[in-house]
């Protein structure tokens, strides 16, 4: 047996190869990774992929050129990569070191797609930048592995989809806030190394081998882990870690390892619930389809229904023509439903239930002042949401 054949058989045993070993790309070649990569929105258009272009430099001495490696010798200063509508292709590894800040942003995951097709696993690495922002795009792992932030103390990831990668987002000794994002069909959706610290909120991990894995500190709230193939969270959780308003759905995945310092308001299979010291604050979820309208026991006390529901919708609407519009329409419909429930409860004299329903209605509307698209009944009960 050749070494190549033996390697292929080993990977097949792990479920990490679906279509043979003849071609190197994509690096993660499984049916579920291929399925995730195959989801593309019509809003991308049909143009061929282009290389990303970056601006960098200090003050008025700025340069603009194709995104490539930058380090202290080139004094990158503030690096800005603005990706418009369409597909963008990274074929050579990019290391950004010594920048004062790095911003990479697209026009939304349905409109901007960055494909990583490099020979190295770490296709895009930012090292040592005091401030990093990654926003509004889909990152697709082909032969490249994923995006790495190393020794970056302030990382913000917002509205990003990581798809079909060996690791979608890797944090090495970095501190990050990850919100309203989707990890789909990755070997590791979010990878933590060297005592990384991360807050994850309103995000979905679906159809991955492992949702979150590695070593570090984790605070997860209003997140959904659905049909992952081995682990939802493969992190040894301890006193500094917290889980709140989390939905775990699927027969194969294990929920987490260790004992988090704080565990509140979980929806999960009965087999996982039995290992909790106190099952009362949590609720059983038999099938994903029960959420949010057919839960046998309702939601747990304090559960962020809107946050988890919208996280799931973002994952489920991938590939549609205008997912943000669809998610917003559903959010407004749900807000009106809960506002009407709040009004009915108030008329019945149940102030506590009215306040809870009003809070959920406003949560569906999103942060900040109510927009013009919010219904009148939501405005009527808005004051109830204030304790």
Characterise this structure.
By secondary structure, this protein is an alpha/beta fold. The protein folds into two domains: 28-321; 327-385. Helices cover 21% and strands 36% of the residues. It has helices at residues 3-14, 31-37, 270-273, 305-316, 323-347, 351-365, 376-381; strands at 53-58, 61-66, 78-82, 86-90, 94-97, 101-105, 112-116, 122-127, 131-141, 146-150, 155-163, 167-172, 175-179, 182-184, 188-201, 204-206, 210-226, 231-237, 242-249, 257-258, 262-268, 283-284. The chain has a six-stranded parallel barrel with strand order 11-13-15-17-16-14. Strands 1-2 form a two-stranded antiparallel ribbon. Strand 21, helix 3 (270-273) and strand 22 form a beta-alpha-beta unit. Helix 4 (305-316) runs antiparallel to helix 5, helix 4 (305-316) runs parallel beside helix 6 (351-365) and helix 5 runs antiparallel to helix 6 (351-365). The longest helix has 25 residues, at 323-347. Mean pLDDT is 91; it is low at 1-23.
What about the largest sheet? Answer: 6 strands, parallel, barrel
Record the strand order, biggest sheet.
Answer: 11-13-15-17-16-14
N- to C-terminal distance:
70 Å
Q: What percent of the residues sit in helical stretches (DSSP H or I)?
A: 10-25%
Q: Count every beta strand, where a strand is a DSSP E run of 2 or more residues.
A: 22
Categorize the overall geometry. globular
Report the sheet-strand fraction. Answer: 35-45%
Order of helices and strands: HHEEEEEEEEEEEEEEEEEEEEEHEHHHH
How many structural domains are formed by the residues? 2
Structural class: alpha/beta
Low-confidence stretches: 1-23
The Cα radius of gyration reads: 22 Å
Q: What is the mean pLDDT?
A: 91
Number of helices in the DSSP assignment: 7
